[in-house]
């Protein structure tokens, strides 16, 4: 044990701060039956969330970011083989059943990308919003509705009584997503899993919804796992961000450092590939090839090596470990020597 | 069509006509005015971004240019030919296809699932150019190479291709008609960041080598910056701002453009709640 506070965390892993983590994911590996064979979709995923922290999970298609959230919420498809552990408030999530599982689900709320796909078109907003309160927490219907109206006010929807009588199709996408946020917060959860909650929204609506999410999260002291493909969005609203590639975490970093001092070549490549709103690049630094799912990627070497401009023989020798460097974690065999040479400079 | 006094726009092409000219365009759907008095022009090898959010009318404009919707009023002129009225003959329709092509947003629904890339392109070449098999084969190979696909991918059905590869097929198909104007309707929006960069570079290369004009319809201001010289900003069917893309983005004048610009996440960005219920929704309380 290192002494708390003073010393820059050199011995303990980056997460090892005095406060016990609310969520601790350790060595999570998930295999799913794909074309009849169990193949990995998550490989050795480890991270923990401190109470009150906003933690970003960033990656492209197939990186495993949504699958990680599903594993945490116990929503993996049937036939999934899971190893490693997920602990919430010290309790092993995988062993929960019956009342304990319902209670856990009350403490972990999820918001999805497409609110329309997660509402029943023939049920009124009020029914949907108060369901968990009425059935899981035995709150009387009238009281549940009053709380729903109050929470709608908090997400900026003033005429809540009328909204509760409406159907999902009568609300715009941005309005419906705010309803989803209000519904998620009604059960007073401790952890919010937000899976691309603003991806389907217009830019100005995204800013509005993110502001609401950010405000309420702070007000209620919520811990948030924020999943997105947008590195800049994660960096703007999360305290720390993990970057995933091919089912693995390749970097965990304070969000404020992610752009200027990336530790892993993939993080740098991802930031460099995005066009810049402030200037036209002669050419974008595209990453060759395409993002791979965990089961397509090399299993015995660095998964990013085939697309990495910095790959050398050492990268093909073994799967790199997630090692601590500069207050963050990086899964790159050359992370020491590449430090400071990866950040995106102005286009040549 | 002598010296067009286009305000600050680059000189038009050799014939003195813009590749595309849209004037006073309006589209009503019942009581709703989706597009309201929109005008713009694009020179040969020029590029124009139509920026806007849902309901701004940007896709309706694209559909009218392609011929999928008929304008209520206003004119659309491509390569000197009017296209605001339906085509009178199959020949007329084909000619319009050689003037304007479109690449849609969703690479998963815009291709025929039973046709390989080669067959898709071959069909367009036969229809538009009527070339013999040998010449078509050579052109298919050129186009496949231009969009960065390999031989195996060219023979594969769409289901065996990734989203980025399918979008390359859709671009090759559009180019096969040798259009003067290519409409990109959110064509890179659904792609992963690393693939999006590849396709944006490809589109820049194609413009340099073919002098095709681009209309980019997008809500993504960084993509707009990367690919276009000129931009118009649409809000509820009306053009609220226009000018060189760099100026519109660096120094937006209209309040809506300013809000759009301020909503883009960037380092140090803090999203702010606006006073009340969001735009585009009915007012909350009286």
Write the layout of secondary structure elements.
The complex is a heterodimer of chains A (348) and B (286).
Chain A: E1 23-34, E2 37-49, E3 54-58, H1 65-72, E4 81-88, E5 91-92, H2 98-107, E6 108-111, H3 125-136, H4 141-154, H5 160-164, H6 173-186, E7 191-195, H7 203-220, E8 223-228, H8 231-237, E9 240-245, E10 248-254, H9 255-258, H10 265-273, H11 313-317, E11 323-325, E12 328-330, H12 335-338
Chain B: E1 20-29, E2 32-42, E3 47-51, H1 58-66, E4 73-78, E5 81-82, H2 90-99, E6 100-103, H3 117-129, H4 133-146, H5 151-155, H6 163-176, E7 181-185, H7 193-210, E8 213-218, H8 221-227, E9 230-235, E10 238-244, H9 245-250, H10 255-262
Parallel strand pairs in B: 3-8, 3-9, 6-7, 7-8
Antiparallel strand pairs in B: 1-2, 1-4, 4-5, 9-10
Low-confidence segments of chain B: 1-15, 275-286
Question: By helix and strand content of chain A, what is the structural category?
Answer: alpha/beta
Rg measurement of chain B, Å: 20 Å
State the end-to-end CA separation of chain A: 47 Å
Keywords:
heterodimer, A: 348 residues, alpha/beta, Rossmann fold, 2 domains, eight-stranded mixed beta sheet, four-stranded antiparallel beta sheet, globular, disordered N terminus, B: 286 residues, six-stranded mixed beta sheet, 36% helix, 22% strand, disordered C terminus
Report what the structure shows.
The complex is a heterodimer of chains A (348) and B (286). Chain A is of the alpha/beta class. In chain A, 32% of the residues lie in helices and 21% in strands. Chain A folds into two domains: 23-238, P-loop containing nucleotide triphosphate hydrolases (Rossmann fold); 258-338, no CATH class. Chain A has helices spanning 65-72, 98-107, 125-136, 141-154, 160-164, 173-186, 203-220, 231-237, 255-258, 265-273, 313-317, 335-338; strands at 23-34, 37-49, 54-58, 81-88, 91-92, 108-111, 191-195, 223-228, 240-245, 248-254, 323-325, 328-330. In chain A, a hairpin with a 2-residue loop joins strand 4 (81-88) and strand 5 (91-92). Chain A is globular. Helices cover 36% and strands 22% of the residues of chain B. Chain B has ten helices and ten strands. In chain B, strand 4 (73-78) and strand 5 form a beta hairpin. In chain B, helix 3 packs across helix 4 (133-146), helix 3 packs parallel to helix 6 and helix 4 (133-146) packs across helix 6. Residues 1-15 and 275-286 of chain B have low confidence and may be disordered. At the A-B interface, helix 6, helix 7, helix 8 and helix 10 of A face helix 6, helix 7, helix 8, helix 9 and helix 10 of B.
